[in-house]
Amino acid sequence: MTNNIIFNLKDTFNLGTNNLTMAVSKVKFEVENIASCIQTHSNHVQYIDKPGIYKDTDGLITSIKNNIYLTIQTADCVPIFIIDNRKDMIGLVHSGWKGTSRSIILSAISIFSDYGSNLNDVQVYLGPFIKSCCYEVKNDVAQFFDDEFIICDNNKLFLCLDLKIKSDLLNVGVQNSNIFISDICTYENKKFCSYRRDKDKAGRMYSIIG
């Protein structure tokens, strides 16, 4: 990861600047350099060259040379960090079940390709998210996924978000050795924010890459 900053930070849910200011102060950069999304559980990803708040998008990509810190918020959804050190490109994606079913990760990877990335150089990191051990779904969600991504146990259905994301990446040509998946389940580990576990009392985690 060389000089890139990648981390997850648990924080209370607040779309204002107070909590985000507290977060970024830990790594000593300015709020004015942040780009964030108004997340809509879409498969929309944008390339950007300026900080700011971007509407109706769940993923941002930029060049490291732009000196922008990308941020998203999650509370069970998958934060996906993407890096190409050869092209000095970084990306950050919010992938819930809707975005995952619509292959939002491929929307992001296609932008890397459009900007000259060789997929052999692209590294992908999946941060903490709700694992299949705890992500029970009904048919209304399961119908959007192939059977290989659904576990059936005692007449209950459990969704494997990471397997779908990894399958998409492998199918498009990202190397298995360049895909890294956190073993933390946000539902199971109470140090992390989980909407499924805590409902409206749930906080959010900021993910930041820069």
Keyword list:
alpha/beta, 6-stranded mixed beta sheet, 6 helices
Describe the structure.
With 210 residues, this protein is of the alpha/beta class. The chain is 21% helix and 30% strand. It has 6 helices and 14 strands. The strands form 3 sheets. The chain has a 6-stranded mixed β-sheet with strand order 3-5-8-7-9-13. It has a 5-stranded mixed β-sheet with strand order 1-14-6-2-4, with helices on one face. A 3-stranded antiparallel β-sheet has the order 10-12-11. Strand 11 and strand 12 (156-159) form a beta hairpin.
Short description:
By secondary structure, this protein is α/β, with parallel strands linked by helices. Helix content is 21%, strand content 30%. A six-stranded mixed sheet has the order 3-5-8-7-9-13. Strands 1-14-6-2-4 form a five-stranded mixed sheet, with helices on one face.
Sequence-ordered SSE layout with sheet pairings:
Blueprint: E1 6-11, H1 17-25, E2 34-37, E3 46-47, E4 52-54, E5 59-63, E6 69-74, E7 78-84, E8 89-95, H2 97-101, H3 104-114, E9 123-126, E10 136-137, H4 139-142, E11 150-153, E12 156-159, H5 161-172, E13 179-181, H6 195-198, E14 204-209
Parallel strand pairs: 2-4, 2-6, 3-5, 9-13
Antiparallel strand pairs: 1-14, 5-8, 6-14, 7-8, 7-9, 10-12, 11-12
Strand order of the largest sheet: 3-5-8-7-9-13
Compute the number of strand runs.
Answer: 14
Q: What is the structural class?
A: alpha/beta
Q: Percent of residues in beta strands?
A: 25-35%
Biggest beta sheet summary? 6 strands, mixed
Q: Could you say which overall geometry the principal axes of the C-alpha atoms support?
A: globular
Poorly predicted tracts of residues: 11-17
- Helices and strands, in order, run as EHEEEEEEEHHEEHEEHEHE
Helix content: 10-25%
Helix run count: 6
State the separation between the terminal residues, measured CA to CA: 11 Å
Q: Report the average pLDDT across residues.
A: 90
Determine Rg (CA atoms, Å). Answer: 16 Å
